[in-house]
Write a structure and sequence with these properties.
Elements lengths: L1 H13 L8 H25 L25 H4 L4 H17 L2 H28 L4 H14 L19 H11 L12 H16 L6 H13 L4 H23 L2 H9 L1 H14 L12 H13 L5 H8 L6 H9 L2 H5 L1 H6 L7 E4 L17 E5 L21 E6 L8 H15 L8 E4 L7 H9 L5 E5 L4 H8 L19 E5 L14 H7 L7 H27 L4 H30 L1
Parallel strand pairs: 2-3, 4-5, 5-6
Antiparallel strand pairs: 1-3
Helix pairs in contact: 2-5, 2-6, 8-9, 8-10, 10-13, 10-15, 12-15, 13-14, 18-19, 21-22
Length: 589
């Protein structure tokens, strides 16, 4: 009897983080998560802060709050033109942010984040055996004291060519400044296991939203771990979960339980229809210990014990349905009949996988926790849909969107419209990062503020002052607005502006520069071989253009000969005019 109790107690202990962290380290982890999430929340509030501006402050700033009511300011100091401009822009931002729609957007964005944050803190409290009172106290401490070592950059981190892992990590630290923690002094192997444990813990919430990944990026930076370790962990976990789900689906116990429970089966089939994942099947009735064993055995190979891994995954380790739903809305659903049914009336619409066949579901080894979608702009041939995005690597499932609109088919405009639609629908946490290149959309702060609210990570505006096609075609229809594809987006915290004028000679060259631009801005998971191929293709095109220009110059005749030729053409035209006039006179007679 005593042995049984001891075994139960020992097993319970293995379900939490006590196997890898001491009590003090568990408390430090709780404080780290609370601090990071407080920094993330602050970034949301700064998006809606009227006092934040991209412009440099005037030499003598106008501080309304410091005015002395007993002094006539108009006589003491005349407002300069620069100060007047700053004051008017401040008033414009305050008016924009005081609009009911913008206030509601800020409120809803913070409510969504706070609910997610609370679920993370409470789940963490469960696995570190901290009571709710202790967790709440840590959150209060974080709110009062959380100060990262540096503010997130307003300018984009540009990586040098042939970037190695250490330099890429410098970019990670620059984008996601480390939060102070004693956990970084742990041995590297232990820090890697801790990062893996946090990934499993976040997945135990039965989703992997963009906020969760940004949190992991902050944790990686704070633990002084390279970015590639997190990417590798994501790939291994995705494949491990799907492998476990596959084992579950073939179990006789699964089939028996699903047949015995028709209500549960209807629920499972309904969820499968929504998720569109072939892996779901009827796995939801599997006994929890069996599922935990299947999940834990596979996950345990990544540095955690089987029971600990299953314990961290929580409900995710108890239902193959949930595992399937985690992946079903992506991968399989992007290429299956479900998507065809949604878009059957739009024949030009499709998600084309860059890996494998568009007619088949992705192979298990190609499945990932994240999806990257590339949307091309001006299409001159079929290959333009996929070609620009071959530089995207293997750490996420990559798709190119085939689509057509009337007039210009500019992909950045579509992303702009999608993000605005997500903001209207309050669909937070779906988009981790968005890169818009040559965007034919206004550069006004208001729409970009709304877009920023639904992008948890990086929102990058890539522009070129040399894009004359965009300048002409967009401004002829919207002359009252600035164009984001031609200039910076200002006065919105968190927007990264990248000037690629030195790389882009014209709008039609963008498709050959997608990989180079993504590499320049430090976008993760870029295939450098494909980038090199893009550059070779662009070099050949530019060489061809140069030769054509030289041929045209070589064919140019002597100025005297050209003048004589023009004189003859004028004489012929005059003769034709005279003959026409003579015929008309004869006709009237």
């Amino acid at each position: 009897m005593t042995d049984s109790k001891q075994g139960s107690s020992s097993e319970k202990q293995k379900d939490d983080l006590s196997t890898i962290l001491t009590t003090e380290e568990q408390i430090e982890l709780t404080l780290l998560i609370a601090n990071i999430t407080e920094v993330m929340r602050k970034q949301i509030t700064e998006t809606f802060d009227a006092s934040i501006t991209s412009a440099k402050p005037p030499a003598q700033a106008l501080h309304v709050g410091n005015k002395n009511p007993n002094i006539d300011e108009s006589k003491a100091h005349e407002e300069t033109e620069e100060e007047e401009k700053a004051r008017k822009l401040q008033a414009k931002r305050e008016k924009e942010l005081s609009a009911p729609k913008m206030k509601e957007l800020k409120k809803d964005a913070l409510e969504f984040f706070d609910k997610w944050r609370e679920s993370i803190i409470l789940r963490l409290g469960q696995v570190v055996n901290n009571p709710k009172e202790v967790v709440d106290e840590k959150v209060k401490e974080a709110s009062a004291e959380a100060t990262p070592n540096a503010d997130p950059p307003t300018e984009t981190k540009v990586l040098r060519r042939n970037t190695n892992i250490e330099e890429a990590d410098a970019a990670l630290v620059d984008l996601y400044p480390p939060t102070s923690t004693h956990l970084y002094s742990l041995p590297k192997d232990k820090r890697i296991i801790l990062l893996h444990a946090m990934l499993l813990l976040l997945l135990s919430l039965e989703h992997y939203i963009a906020h969760s990944r940004i949190l992991l990026l902050h944790i990686s930076s704070s633990l002084h771990l390279p970015l590639h370790i997190l990417s590798e962990q994501e790939v291994k976990v995705a494949q491990g979960l799907l492998e476990a789900a596959k084992r579950m689906s073939g179990s006789e116990e699964t089939q028996k339980r699903s047949d015995d429970n028709k209500v549960a089966r209807r629920w499972k089939v309904g969820l499968a229809g929504v998720a569109g994942a072939a892996v779901i099947g009827v796995t939801g009735g599997l006994a929890a210990p069996l599922v935990a064993g299947a999940i834990g055995t596979i996950m345990g190979g990544l540095g955690l014990g089987a029971t600990t891994a299953a314990g961290l995954l929580g409900a995710l380790a108890e239902s193959g349905v949930i595992v399937g739903s985690l992946f079903g809305a992506y991968g399989a659903g992007m290429t299956s009949k479900m998507m065809d049914a949604y878009a059957k009336e739009v024949e030009d619409f499709a998600f084309l996988p860059l890996k494998g066949s568009k007619h088949q579901d992705p192979k298990p080894e190609d499945r990932r926790l994240r999806v990257t979608i590339g949307i091309s702009g001006w299409l001159t041939q079929k290959e333009d849909i996929i070609t620009p995005w071959r530089a995207l690597g293997h750490e996420s499932e990559v798709f190119a969107l085939r689509w057509e609109l009337e007039a210009l088919t500019l992909g950045a405009r579509m992303i702009y419209s999608c993000l605005m639609s997500l903001a209207e629908r309050r669909a937070f946490g779906l988009v981790e990062s968005a890169v818009l290149v040559g965007t034919p959309a206004p550069s006004d702060a208001a729409p970009w503020r709304a877009m920023r609210s639904v992008v948890s990570g990086r929102l990058i505006n890539v522009y070129s002052e040399n894009d004359y096609i965009l300048a002409f075609l967009y401004r002829t229809s919207s002359i009252q607005y600035g164009v984001a594809g031609l200039q910076e987006v200002q006065d919105v915290k968190g927007i990264e502006n990248v000037n690629v004028s030195d790389m882009v000679s014209g709008h039609l060259r963008l498709q050959y520069l997608a990989g180079s631009i993504l590499e320049k801005i430090g976008f993760e998971d870029i295939d450098k071989k494909e980038v090199a191929r893009e550059e070779e293709t662009l070099a050949l095109l530019e060489e061809q253009d140069r030769k054509e220009e030289e041929e045209k110059k070589g064919e140019a005749i002597d100025p005297d000969e050209e003048a004589a030729k023009m004189e003859k053409e004028v004489e012929k035209k005059s003769e034709r005019t005279m003959m026409q006039n003579f015929k008309e006179k004869l006709h009237f007679k």
